[in-house]
Amino acid sequence: MSRHGKVLVAMSGGIDSTVAALMLHEEGYEVIGITMKTWDYATSGGSKKETGCCNIDSFNDARAAAVQHGFPHYILDIRDEFGDFVVDNFIEEYLAGRTPNPCVMCNTHIKWRALLKRADAMDCAFIATGHYANIRQHDNERFVISKGLDETKDQSYVLWGLQQDLLSRTILPLGKFRKTAIRQMAHDFGYPELAKKNESYEICFVPDNDYRGFLKRNVDGLETSVYGGNFIDKSGKILGKHKGYPFYTIGQRKGLDIAMGKPVFVTSINPVTNTVTLGDEEDLLQKEMLVGKLNFIKYEGIQDGMDAVIRIRYKDFGSNGTLHTKAEGIGVNFYDAAKGIAPGQSAVFYEGDDVIGGGIIQRTN
Fold first, then answer.
1. Is 6-130+173-196's fold the same as 285-364's?
2. Kind of pairing, strands 285-296 and 275-279?
3. Please, what's the largest Cα pairwise distance for the chain?
4. Which fold has domain 6-130+173-196?
5. Which residues are catalytic?
6. What is d(CA 293, CA 311) in angstroms, rounded to the nearest whole number?
7. Which candidate, 269, 237, 268, 243, places its Cα nearest to that of 256?
8. Number of DSSP helices (H) and strands (E) in the chain, helices first
9. pLDDT of 148-178, one tens digit each?
10. Which of 38, 90, 174, 312 has its Cβ near the most Cβ atoms within 10 Å?
């Protein structure tokens, strides 16, 4: 019998999840490894092979580590669950002129729920992943996500959507370590090749990083229906023609294919009129935004006017501001204007290293 109980560990075959599983195994947990197949890239017609979490080599790497250390490993096919929500949401958001974050949607609505469902079926007390973040129980008895020790790898931003029942059963073994230490552990466990393995940053169902091509292949007639809309300036003056509003994102500068004699940026997108507004870099600065589709973590809600550090993208260092209760969600007022706020992206609110909660950016005000 194990010293700490049974834990179902999500294993992608990469260094982080493999080391997480082996750490827990060494600590005395009864580990069961599980690799989730989320997407069959061959069906999307992309130009590259499957990569990251969805290729057979990764499945084999995860299984080999489990076999070598004497714990079971299973492959879980969640393509139907994943595709119905995450991929559909991804397409719908771009067609609505917003910029989605599918990894957040997957963690929030698919991956953790799928893990917990299988954990219950296998009588596992816990689930675990290789994310760089920490979970603890606060004095108010709520379970809180906080930043990982290695701020260059911190993944607390993508976990804001996890609800209390999920957090109460989640273990994140890597949160108290730096990436350099995890690489050394991979060597020590006998997997030097893992320490050299390239990390996967692409969206699992767009492994060639060509989201425009993905949209064209998966939305019938899209390219012809949106081609030739207008680039405009903030006064509404027509500047030229574009290739279709879904193929642009807020803050984009490169690939606009328009000569303006100076750098210009996408500052807003209107799907109704198929127009893309271009402006100067300073036009990307905004002092207010509205955040909806909320999930609260550290507290059950916010105190109106409370201070927070707000991150508006994964690699964002965060901006200071205040949070305000609105009928449609939470209004954010930044002390200094934030750059490149993109509706559809996640906004995550921090108190020190702790995640207060987060939501989806609805609009700037």
1. no
2. unpaired
3. 72
4. Rossmann fold (3.40.50)
5. 106, 204
6. 16
7. 243
8. 11, 17
9. 999 999 999 999 999 999 999 999 999 999 9
10. 174
